[in-house]
């Protein structure tokens, strides 16, 4: 009995030490890693602004979302950036494999020097005008920091996956000043885990990252819209916007998934990415809103009021989606989150302008923002992240979740239904073909 009691005491002591270590590691990740990741994310944001100044001669603003660059200069900027990026990525990919965040969670190690070049190169091409999102770079940087920290403190493989995911979410939160979206990115998209410890770690790390980043780059709204006022008219519009965005975003998601699966990573990137750059430059000569990560196009949509802009906005949404898919397919690394926001916003503005003839007083910017959230939710399969992100980026009041959440819910449900119908159709066709061969 004495031996059993002694053994139980030792096991209890061991469990206590393990819990204390977990608490120390958790606080270390939240306070130190979160703060450091926020500073790094802010640095990437500042780097993007400087690159826009160097390459384009200016950046977009609320008043001039299309930017202030001269047509010839933006053409040269895009083509030069595509050539430089093609050469560097070809050299990197010959010798190194840069894992995705999910692969890093599984234990695949980030090569330090190659990964840092890869991250900065993403910011460079976005700032120079190529059509792709910038959010992957800070997520990868956060994951890199989280993975390195996990190895230093010697945690288990499962804990390393959690820390890597939470740090990736912190990078996302830091660059967009969106701690809730950063938390949901880690919990909803990467870990699919809602345990108290995971949610607390993800939220705390994202909060610290957003706070430290705001000390450098401020905390101004990323998108400017009219305040969202909840009324029956707006909620009725959400019943239309949600399903429409579900269908459109489903097509966009399939396109970007195809582009990622067939992305050029061999020597052919040396001609394919420059060709994509030339095509993008040709379009940007006349339509600068399609450049970059899509912030300019989104703000253009939120600023729209005239019925004459409907055709232009539809064209911009289609061009942004197609050129982004082309850029990814031709070998560029980067995100598709902000291009999705831009495409959804443009389509939402078209819907709002069209119904304004029958519903006077409709806020076009509010409907466009709600459409952005619905489009993003389906394209990323992340309704919670999309809802919080668009509210945080626009500094919308919490009550606006009634409208945003309704449109987001309808969007993801419609896209889910389409997925199941296509799956059922394909299954029946395959089954029928098998019967025919028999």
Q: What's the structural blueprint in terms of helices and strands?
A:
Blueprint: H1 2-56, H2 71-95, H3 101-105, H4 112-128, H5 136-153, H6 157-176, H7 179-191, H8 196-217, H9 232-261, H10 269-286, H11 295-303, H12 310-329, H13 337-355, H14 364-380, H15 383-393, H16 401-437
Helix pairs in contact: 1-4, 1-5, 1-6, 1-8, 2-4, 2-10, 4-5, 5-6, 6-7, 6-8, 7-8, 7-15, 9-12, 9-13, 9-14, 9-16, 11-13, 11-14, 12-13, 13-14, 14-15, 14-16, 15-16
Distance between the termini: 70 Å
Structural class: mainly alpha
Largest sheet: none
Q: Which runs of at least 5 residues are low in confidence (pLDDT < 50)?
A: 3-11
Instruction: Give the DSSP E fraction (strand runs of 2 or more residues).
Output: under 5%
**Separate helix tally:** 16
Rg over C-alpha atoms, rounded to the nearest angstrom? 23 Å
Helix content class? over 70%
SSE order, one letter for each helix or strand: HHHHHHHHHHHHHHHH
In one word, what is the shape?
globular
Explain this structure.
By secondary structure, the protein is mostly helical. Helix content is 77%, strand content 0%. The chain is built from 16 helices and no strands. The longest helix has 55 residues. It is globular, with a radius of gyration of 23 Å. The N terminus is likely disordered.
Identify the notable features of this structure and list them briefly.
438 residues; mainly alpha; 16 helices; 77% helix; 0% strand; globular; disordered N terminus
How would you summarize what this structure contains?
The protein is mostly helical and 438 residues long.
């Amino acid at each position: 009995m004495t031996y059993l009691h002694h053994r139980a005491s030792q096991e209890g002591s061991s469990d206590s030490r393990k819990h204390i270590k977990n608490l120390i590691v958790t606080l270390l990740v939240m306070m130190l890693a979160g703060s450091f990741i926020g500073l790094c994310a802010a640095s990437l944001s500042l780097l993007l602004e400087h690159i826009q100044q160097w390459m384009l001669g200016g950046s977009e603003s609320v008043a001039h979302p299309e930017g202030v660059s001269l047509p010839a200069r933006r053409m040269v900027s895009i083509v030069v950036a595509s050539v430089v990026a093609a050469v560097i990525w070809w050299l990197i990919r010959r010798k190194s494999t840069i894992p995705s965040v999910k692969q890093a969670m599984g234990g695949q190690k980030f090569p330090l020097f190659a990964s840092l070049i890869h991250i900065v190169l993403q910011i460079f091409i976005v700032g120079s005008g190529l059509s792709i999102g910038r959010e992957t770079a800070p997520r990868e940087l956060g994951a890199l920091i989280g993975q390195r920290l996990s190895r230093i403190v010697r945690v288990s493989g499962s804990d390393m996956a959690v820390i890597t995911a939470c740090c990736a979410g912190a990078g996302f939160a830091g660059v967009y000043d969106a701690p809730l979206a950063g938390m949901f990115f880690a919990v909803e998209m990467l870990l699919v885990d809602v345990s108290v410890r995971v949610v607390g770690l993800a939220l705390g790390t994202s909060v610290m990252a957003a706070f430290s980043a705001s000390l450098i780059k401020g905390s101004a709204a990323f998108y400017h819209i009219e305040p969202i006022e909840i009324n029956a008219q707006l909620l009725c519009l959400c019943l239309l916007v949600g399903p429409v965005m579900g269908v459109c975003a489903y097509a966009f998601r399939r396109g970007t998934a195809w582009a990622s699966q067939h992305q050029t990573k061999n020597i052919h990137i040396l001609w394919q990415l420059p060709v994509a750059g030339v095509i993008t430059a040709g379009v940007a000569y006349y339509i600068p809103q399609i450049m970059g990560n899509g912030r300019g196009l989104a703000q253009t949509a939120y600023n729209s009021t005239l019925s004459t802009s409907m055709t232009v906005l539809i064209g911009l949404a289609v061009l942004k989606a197609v050129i982004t898919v082309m850029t990814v397919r031709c070998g560029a690394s980067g995100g598709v989150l902000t291009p999705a926001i831009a495409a959804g916003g443009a389509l939402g503005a078209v819907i709002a302008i069209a119904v304004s003839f029958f519903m006077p007083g409709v806020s076009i910017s509010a409907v466009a923002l709600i459409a952005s959230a619905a489009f993003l939710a389906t394209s990323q399969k992340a309704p919670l992240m999309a809802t919080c992100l668009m509210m945080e980026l626009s500094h919308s009041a919490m009550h606006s979740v009634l409208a945003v959440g309704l449109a987001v819910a309808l969007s993801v449900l419609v896209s889910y239904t389409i997925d199941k119908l296509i799956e059922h159709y394909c299954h029946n066709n395959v089954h029928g073909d098998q019967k025919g061969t028999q």
